[in-house]
Design brief:
The chain has about 300 residues and is of the alpha+beta class. It has 9 helices and 15 strands. The strands form 4 sheets. It has a 5-stranded mixed beta sheet, with helices on both faces. Strands 6-5-4-8 form a 4-stranded mixed beta sheet, with no helix packed on it. Strands 10-11-12 form a 3-stranded antiparallel beta sheet. It is globular. It binds zinc ion (ZN). It comes from Macrococcus equipercicus. This is NERD domain-containing protein. Pfam families: NERD.
Length: about 300
């Protein structure tokens, strides 16, 4: 899931999206569904280990975003997920929509990602072969593919993952290198102004503004999930920063975003607990900032819950 998708989900429940944003949200959801499906297969086949997802790297000002990376004994394998609804036709290495319009060849993007990742690893004195596949998750068709084109259907993914020789020795270290050396801020992110938003709390699971309850727990009347109040406030604090593209905030602005559900005094109690747990940093009596970049906060806090 991308920050753009989270923002649009939050904003769609707090106001009205224009047509472009609605289309973008649809596209983001579609992409996320594909990535999630692949993640679920990897989780099952690879026992939840030996792979890492959603990694953003930079090498000599070339940026790549990797959906999934599998680490085996001799190689690193990139899985680039495509969840497209259109059929494609491939002729002499060029890709076309059915209406004849040419589109960029995803295999070229994959080659570029492989090359950048190989250089990125070499700079860290890691000499592993880099392989890659496009995982085609939608039910659309590609006509004219060659047998050795690196595109696999979902149905083949489990078998391929099963045959990999994963390695206990390599994984923890390399995984660590990916996590520590990945970019903390996404250079591909393009911020959209939030406009006028309804106040309230977005459900951390379905984003609806339909949470109820005031004592320790809140329950979403749409998706029926229960959350601790502390979790709801913290998550919505990240939503606030993300949709407004701010890293610091005053308690007054946060209280406006939430509406009059809790008193400022109650909010202050929760904020104090986050500061004590080092999940938030105090700037002065009324201003606070996130301990990490918004992208890192989303990745570590919001995505780890899903
Ligand atoms: Zn919900």
């Amino acid at each position: 899931m991308t920050r753009t998708m989270i923002n649009l989900e939050v904003m769609s429940k707090r106001g009205v999206l224009d047509d472009d944003d609605r289309k973008l949200l649809d596209k983001e959801r579609n992409g996320w569904n594909g990535e999630r499906l692949v993640g679920e297969v990897l989780q099952k086949v690879l026992d939840g280990r030996w792979f890492t997802s959603n990694i953003l790297l930079e090498h000599d000002q070339n940026y790549i975003q990797l959906d999934h990376v599998i680490i085996t004994r001799q190689r690193v394998i990139i899985l680039e997920v495509k969840n497209h609804r259109h059929d494609y036709e491939v002729r002499s290495g060029k890709w076309y929509f059915q209406n004849g319009r040419e589109v960029s060849n995803p295999l070229n993007q994959l080659e570029r990602a492989k090359s950048i990742l190989a250089h990125w690893l070499q700079r860290r004195k890691i000499y592993l072969q880099v392989h890659g596949y496009i995982v085609w998750t939608g039910d659309s068709h590609i006509f004219g593919l060659q047998p050795d084109d690196a595109i696999i259907k979902m149905t083949k993914l489990a078998r391929i993952a099963n045959e990999l020789q994963v390695s206990d020795e390599l994984f923890p270290q390399l995984h660590e290198v990916f996590l520590t050396d990945q970019l903390k801020t996404n250079p591909f992110y393009h911020h959209r102004a939030a406009g006028q938003l309804k106040n309230g709390f977005n459900c951390p699971s379905c984003y609806c503004l339909s949470l109820n309850g005031r004592k320790q727990q809140m329950k979403c009347i749409d998706c029926r999930t229960t959350f601790s109040i502390s979790e709801v406030i913290y998550t919505n604090m990240i939503y606030y920063c993300s949709v407004h593209n701010v890293h610091e905030f005053s308690i007054r602005c946060l209280a406006e975003f939430f509406g009059d559900y809790f008193t400022v005094r109650t909010l202050q109690l929760y904020i104090r607990s986050y500061i004590e747990a080092q999940r938030l940093i105090k700037i002065n009596r009324t201003t606070y900032r996130l301990p990490e970049t918004i992208d890192t906060m989303i990745k570590e806090h919001l995505l780890s819950n899903n």
